[in-house]
Amino acid sequence: MDRITRISNERFGPGMVPVVALSHNEINILPDFLAHYRGICDAGFLIVDDRSTDGSRDYLMAQPDVTLFEPVPGAEFLKERAIWKSGLLDHYGAGKWCLSPDIDELFVWPGAPDRSLRQYINALEAEGAEAAIALMIDMYGDMALADHVHDRADGQSLTERFCYFDGPGPFPAGYTMRPIARKQMRDFPTPPVRFNGGARDRLFFLQTAEPTPVQRGMIESYLRLDRTVTPRGLDYYMRMFMRQRTRHLFQGALNATKVGVFRWQEGTLFNGHTMNRRLRMSESIAALLHFPLTRGRAGIEYIVNRGQHAGGSKYYKTLLDGDGLDASPLCEHSLRYDGPQSLSDLMRDIPRG
Fold this sequence. Notes:
By secondary structure, the protein is of the alpha/beta class. The protein is built from eleven helices and 13 strands.
């Protein structure tokens, strides 16, 4: 933990589940974040506050289960976030099952809420898995994107206010799961597949290439969510071939893949999306409910000016420069979220036997 410093009392105790996160000016959603993870496990929050100016730091300092850190002078979020996360996981999470969501992400898993997180982890262990992949599902409301503002003062939770998501649909709608490129397999092999799709692609990714009927058939048959998480043998080569023949259709598409829950191996480098060590992946698929827009137009302008998101926040800049902020993001594939059971067509349980 050379590049961060603890600034609160040590509040991580034996038996707690490490929940590692990075925070910057997210006071409006921090209560939802903490409440969610407190509700699913005995959470020990290990949070790096990256120079917040909106009261986040004082709020987090007052929480009895948050151990708070800050970057050392000169440290930069975009360049060093993987070092911060990995250092905390090495110190607090070695050999333990851990969670490392962003502050705007809520983890859900197959069988919840009837199956507890501990029971899900037990099932992962019985499967022989060391990690489970999670599909990022962007959440939104039936209102102009410029009006996507969250304030807990009115009593609404994040999932109540932004209660819609993109469900399955024929390509290019819906979601895809493709094997990662061979170079990434060498350098960052976990997870071995990459998700794309949902509202993030529909709103941010302006794809102009049209698939041929053959390419559409390849995607529908080999690159959807019903394939294995870890391709092997002939299935691997077939899916890599399909990936190559259709890759131009995904150039610029946003990554919707996270490692949702994992047993941490000390010395691993983890940037939130990928790990540089090969972990045995479950064949289940969990989900992270993602709330990227919660501060309206002003929040998007702040993200663009800060430039710390993927691609220097260029996707948010595209949204800001266009006319998309003035319309509701609802579409024909929008579904209403009424709990984890609403994701039954997107999440997948651990195979039996």
